[in-house]
Fold:
Amino acid sequence: MGSNNTKKMLNTLNRHREFYNQQEGVVLITDFMQFSQILEQLREKGDLKSFNALFALMEKSLNADIMIKERGKRIHKLQKGQTQPKGTGHKNLHGLKRELEIKNKDKDK
Structure:
């Protein structure tokens, strides 16, 4: 995201900040059941724009979490003197999905 686009997004958030309850927001996105219910409600009401926006934001957040954890593991191994070949690890949510699919296929065989 360019810096100009980032500034615009921050301004948008600031315009709506009075309606935002940070504590409730954090609880809603960290509680799997509540988050799942929100997605279902948006889908059932036919609010596909909101559904897609929330889904994309959560997927982006999970990708960032996975990348941060992978980098942390790599840094930890490098600090211990162990090297990890480049190109290993999940890198993102889709890589994790692919790895799980491969494991499940192997179990089915």
User: Anything to note?
Assistant: The chain has one domain: 3-108. The first helix runs from residue 3 to 15. Residues 3-108 form one domain.
